[in-house]
Amino acid sequence: MQTWPVRRGRPYKEKLDPLEPLISGQRVIDTFFPIAKGGTAAIPGGFGTGKTVMLHQFAKWAEADIIVYVGCGERGNEMCDVLSHFPKLKDPRTGESLMERTVLIANTSNMPVAAREASVYTGITIAEYFRDMGYDVALMADSTSRWAEAMREISGRLEEMPGEEGFPAYLASRLAEFYERAGRVRTLGGNGRVGSVTVLGAVSPPGGDLSEPVTQNTLRIVKVFWALDTALADRRHFPAIHWLTSYSLYVDSMKDWWKQKIGEDWKSLRDEAITMLQKEAELEEIVKLVGPDALPESERAVLEAARIMREDFLHQFAFHEVDTYCPVEKQMGMFKIVLEFYRNCVEAAKRGIAVSEVRKLPIKDAIAGMKRLSPEKFQREYKSLQTQLKRQFAELMQSRKALPGGVEGGR
Q1: What is the pTM of this model?
Q2: Phi/psi of residue 108, each to 5°?
Q3: Positions of E strands within 243-355
Q4: CA distance 354 to 301
Q5: pLDDT tens-digit readout, 293-345
Q6: Among 219, 394, 254, 236, which residue's Cα sits nearest to residue 310?
């Protein structure tokens, strides 16, 4: 046992650069917007966008030794859900119950505001305690908005000068103090022992308004922004992280890890996918005005490939026994196949093949079923999927050449 004032960060020897990702098994996070061990992330989103389920997924599957889950001002039934489900779940690495490595701080919405204000500090201090033992710790604060509201209520009772929207003037500095306690460090004790605290803070802006003070002050501090989109949630696309408004500032520092671990140039593949999705967003605006039939085949091919990227790669079903967790090797394999489909689709369109013909290819159903294959089965079938994709597009282009009215045949 140690006694420590929770509002003061625990000391360490040296803070290290965040070079290794904290793998979560969620494709949109690991492949598109990764977070480093010792990093900070904000998850803002309106009601019903899936913040809590996403944090639960992270708590279940993240490659962290210890999980500290702070339920700050949340509904009591959500904490009961964690307490009832986590003991039944097995840690995929140890085979033990997930509760064996989980610390829960339950501070529900009907508890005193002073306890709510203290709960986040308690959580980060417990995380630092385990970090000092050399563990990788992931802390989930759900939600920092309720914590800020508790600060506002206490500040009002103390008759302090209010700031923007009634929050205390020191809101930004308190948020910064909290997130600054994250990091990967060399600890004081032990022989060069290294531990980390990764902080994920959910933000619940009223009405989904991301311009309110808590969200804006949080975004100035954190390095990863997972923007949950109400429109995606309404379309039942989960995780509802929007790929155009989210970002990660750890991408450049992660590329060497991917090169060593997976042997792929992950960053260039990621950039290609982001460019495709940005192009789709631009084309969607034109489609709304004139309809898809007015687009040339090359642009319709981009729309088709981007739809497959969204529905068959970025979409992930949290309650499916296989799709709930996707190892990085399977993620990279799926990613490469979808991008290969995109390149072939665009090339076919340039040769005058209609996208309607591409839609009839059997490989599309095989790509849609990749997420439901177990990692072992996917590894066995990966080469076969690549071969099928190349063969079917080659046959399609060959048949186009053979036609009298084809591009080559008509010359």
Answers
A1: 0.91
A2: -80, 170
A3: 247-248
A4: 9
A5: 888 999 999 999 999 999 999 999 988 999 999 999 999 999 999 999 999 99
A6: 236
